[in-house]
Amino acid sequence: MEFFNSALGKNISFVRPAYFIISGFIGIPNIKFYYVFLFFVFVVSVLGNTAVMAVIYLDHNLRAPKYIMVFNLAFVDLFGNSALVPKLLDIFLFDQRYIPYNDCLTFLFFCYTCLSMQTLNLVGLCYDRLIAIIFPLHYHLKVTHRFMFSLIASFWVFVIFVVLIAVGLLTRLSFCKSVLINSYFCDHGQIFRLACNDRSPSFDIGTSLPVLLVWLPLMFILFSYLYIAYALSKVATVQERVKAFKTCTAHLSLVAIYFIPILITFTMSSKIHPNGRIINLSLSSVFPPMLNPIIYVLQTQEIKESVKKLFKIRNCNCSSNLSNFSVGGD
C-alpha cells in the first residue's frame, strides 16, 4: 500500500517544469554528422520496412501465421523509428533541446512502447520456430492465424499498460532543481532521478521494466533454442539439424543485433562514458529496425522468392505496356 500511497497520494501539489532540456552528447566536435548518419539510417529503415509490409500484403503465399508476426515487427520498426529519429533530429540538428513537459512524456511513451514491442515480437517469432521444429505435425493446429493475432494483441495491451503506469508515476513527481536530461531522448531513468520528492515508485517500475521487457524475453528465447538444440541432438541427423537451424538464422540474427548492445550497456553501465552510453543506446534503437527487413529478405527463402516474383510480374507488365505502345504507334 505504501507504493500506491506515495505515488497516488491525495491533496498533494506537484512541481512540474514547463520544459525539460535534452543534453545529448557532451564535448564532441562535429557531432551533427552523426545525426545526419542517423537520418540516412532512418530513410533506409522506412524504405525497408515499408517494402517488407508491402510484400507480405501483396503476396497471398505469405499469409501464414508466422508472417503476421513479421508484418507486426516491420510495423513496430517503422513506427518506432518514425517516433524517435525525426524528433531526435529536430532536437539536435535544429537545436530544439527545450522540450515541453507533456511533449516529453508523450515522446517517452511512444519510444518505450515501440522498443518494448520489438523484444516481444522476437519472443513471438521464437515461439513460432519452437513449435515448427519440436512439434512439426501439430504446427498448423497450435500456430493459427487466430492465435497469432491474439498473441500480438496481448503484447500490445501489456506493453501499453506497463508503459502507461511508468509515465503515470512520473506525473506524481516534483522537479525542484535541474531539468537537464542526460540522454538523447526523454529517458525514464534519467527523468525520475531529477525528482526532489519520493521517487521510489518510479524507481521500482524503472527496475521492473528491464526485467519484464528485456531479461524475461531474452531468457525465454535462450531456453527455447537450448531446448531446440537438445531435441534435435536426440532425434535428428546432422543434415536435418543444419536444415532445421537454417530456418532460425534470420531470427537469431535479429536477437543478436537487438540484445547484444543492450546487454553491453546494462552490464557495463558504470564503466561506460555518458557519450558512449548515448551512442550505444541510440544505435541499438535505430539499427535493428534498419537491419530487420534486410535480414528477412536475405535469409528467408519465402520472402526472397516473393520479391523475385513481384519484380518479375512488374517487369512483365512493363514489357507488355511497351509492346502495346509500339503497336499503337505503328
UniProtKB/TrEMBL annotation:
- Pfam families given in the database record: 7tm_4
Location in the cell:
Cell membrane
Q: Which domain of life is it from?
A: Eukaryota
Q: Name one GO molecular function term.
A: olfactory receptor activity
Q: Which residues does the UniProt record annotate as the domain G-protein coupled receptors family 1 profile?
A: 48-296
For this UniProt record, the keywords arranged alphabetically read as follows: Cell membrane, Disulfide bond, G-protein coupled receptor, Glycoprotein, Membrane, Olfaction, Receptor, Sensory transduction, Transducer, Transmembrane, Transmembrane helix
Q: Kindly give the Gene3D superfamilies that the UniProt entry links to this protein.
A: Rhodopsin 7-helix transmembrane proteins (1.20.1070.10)
Q: Which GO terms describe its cellular component?
A: plasma membrane
Membrane topology summary: Multi-pass membrane protein
Transmembrane regions listed in the UniProt entry: 12-28, 34-58, 67-85, 105-127, 147-170, 212-232, 244-266, 278-298
Q: What is this protein called?
A: Olfactory receptor 1-like
According to its UniProt entry, this protein's organism is Sparus aurata (Gilthead sea bream)
Whichever gene encodes this chain, its name is LOC115594688
